[in-house]
């Protein structure tokens, strides 16, 4: 079978309204894909920079896939959270990006967004915190009902990924 090896890191995030951020991440791939080694999901540490406008995580990603076909190419999805001084966590954004299809080193920026909610929810979020969250986070990367959402843009997650493709030429795919 053809293989894809993704080695890299979630470098950090920038453009969010507050500091003290952490990221929950996961990978989604189609039915023809199998993870041979590596984690399907993970979470970074909380970074609370004093003087910087960005969070630095340098969280490693190392996933090895095998596949019977190209359909359902892997996607990385993210949830960026803010932790306040009381230890409460608030969702700051959802995002996803496709794993690059060409071998080599890639620097990616994944834009994030959050549901806007109703006027009442926005006022409540301003005074109390919290905010609307998706009932089904799969909407982030499937896109079936995503177009119905009213969203607010948030910051960006930076990634550095190295892609290694193996045995694709044996199955008639040029790399």
From TrEMBL:
It is found in: Cytoplasm, Cytoskeleton, Cilium basal body. Signal peptide: none annotated. The keyword Cytoplasm applies. It holds the Pfam family B9-C2. It comes from the Eukaryota. One of its GO terms (cellular component) is MKS complex. Keywords: Cell projection, Cilium biogenesis/degradation, Cytoplasm, Cytoskeleton. Belongs to the B9D family. Component of the tectonic-like complex, a complex localized at the transition zone of primary cilia and acting as a barrier that prevents diffusion of transmembrane proteins between the cilia and plasma membranes. This is B9 domain-containing protein 2. It comes from Branchiostoma lanceolatum. The gene is B9D2.
């Amino acid at each position: 079978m053809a293989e894809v090896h993704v080695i890299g890191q979630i470098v950090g995030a920038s453009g969010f309204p507050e500091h003290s951020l952490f990221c929950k991440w996961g990978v989604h791939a189609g039915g023809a894909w199998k993870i041979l080694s590596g984690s399907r999901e993970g979470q970074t540490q909380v970074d609370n920079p004093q003087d910087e406008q960005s969070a630095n995580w340098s969280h490693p990603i190392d996933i090895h896939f095998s596949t019977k076909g190209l359909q359902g190419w892997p996607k990385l999805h993210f949830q960026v959270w803010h932790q306040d001084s009381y230890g409460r966590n608030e969702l700051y954004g959802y995002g996803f990006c496709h794993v690059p299809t060409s071998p080599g080193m890639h620097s990616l920026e994944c834009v994030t967004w959050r549901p806007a909610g109703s006027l009442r929810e926005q006022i409540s979020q301003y005074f109390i915190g919290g905010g609307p969250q998706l009932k089904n986070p799969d909407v982030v990367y499937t896109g079936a009902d995503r177009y119905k959402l009213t969203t607010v843009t948030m910051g960006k997650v930076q990634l550095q990924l190295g892609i290694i493709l193996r045995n694709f030429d044996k199955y008639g795919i040029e790399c």
